[in-house]
Amino acid sequence: MSQGLRLGESVMERLATLARYSETPDNLTRRYLTAAHKQAASQVTSWMEAAGMSAGLDAVGNVVGRYESEPPGAPALLLGSHIDTVVDAGPYDGNLGVIAAIACVGDLAARGRRLPFAIEVLAFGDEEGSRFPATLTGSSAIAGRFDPACLDSRDEAGVSLGEALQAFGGDPAAAPSVGRAPGAVHAYVELHIEQGPVLESKGLPVGVVTAINGANRFAIRLAGMAGHAGTVPMALRRDALAGAAEMMVAVEEIGGGGDGLVATVGRIEALPGSVNVVPGEARFTLDVRAPEDAVRRRAASDILARFHDIAERRGLDLTVEETHDAAAAACAPWIMRQLDAAVAKQGIRPLRLPSGAGHDAMAFSGFCPMGMLFQRCTGGISHNPAESITVEDTDIAVRVLLDFIENFEPDA
Ligand SMILES: [Zn+2]
Which of 136, 361, 369, 372 is packed most tightly, with the most Cβ within 10 A? Predict the structure, then answer.
């Protein structure tokens, strides 16, 4: 084992160990409050204890480890990510940020180094929302935003989140009380795989996140007139699917306008859906994201205006339902600067990039300053067993995080 990659190698080893805790034997599926989640949580707890932290489960099933300040009782720098996964996941999404943070604390403890602030490492139980129709349950609770309504949400087997939490060893009644007092926290900082191809394309192992993109989602319904594919002349058709196709081209065009904007039609359905029938109805989804809310809102309204024009010209009835509207979560400039400095100290050009995917860090936006460090992943692939990172990049990411922690100056 090369001494030079000591931190990266130990983190990669633990990630491989953690990936064995799965609901299924042949792939990695570890959803919130399952037996596999419980096993992973107890493994993480013992690693936290071995790294010199006091650790345990909180009322919503987060693993919380605290490395005390010197003198004790000071506000904490929160670090972490999630240990739940999607179905048939890769081993690094979420887990990397937890294991890397534990490794940093372990390194400090081994050197007997205490800091003037406490460090809390958080292993959130529900970021992916892959079991219940709820997401960011653990991180929202820490940020004092636990929504008791989520306890009634049910998984596919009909088990409620509240029942599952009870069986897991959590405490639904105490869930609102895991929220931190704002004065007890300096900031939340998360290391995560990029889940996109930007760092790879720039040849960089890590990058500093500027913001988690805000997102709008819409359900679009177009109604035209179904008819016989052989007898209705082209000029007399009100083909809902052809209208949807023209709208998709508009989405691609407006979505390509720059400023980090992306727009996607991810699902489309034609009814009645028969080879010999002109589609009388089309339903599709629209997802619009950007690092800046103003850019996103303008793009969404431009796209919808274009939809109205297209529908009118084609004699189609357009129904638009907004299903999701999340504001962008900006990373704190002072955290970005301190992360940049830690990246530069590893001899790496600091690159800033927005996050197109949602993360636990979003839950802290508006509660405490937050920041994120991205690590390159092969091909930008995630939510897939083919997810891949290198030991060299991991070693760099852990050293950047460690340097950031050791030089952390609250709100500087
Ligand atoms: Zn994740």
Answer: 372
Q: Which two tokens stand for residue 238?
A: 């009100």
Mean pLDDT, to the nearest integer, of 115-121? 98
Tokens of 96: 């990397």
DSSP string, 45-70: HHHHHHTT-EEEE-TTS-EEEEE--S
Q: Ligand 1 center to residue 127 CA distance, Å?
A: 7
* Interval 307-320: pLDDT, tens: 999 999 999 999 99
Angle (CA) 194 203 394, round 5°? 55
pTM of the model: 0.87
CA distance 228 to 120: 65
| Total residues belonging to the chain | 412
Residue 343, SS3 per DSSP = helix
CA of 150 to the centre of ligand 1 (A): 20
What angle is formed at CA 282 by the lines to CA 279 and CA 288, rounded to 5 degrees? 150
* Distance of CA 82 from the midpoint of ligand 1 (Å): 6
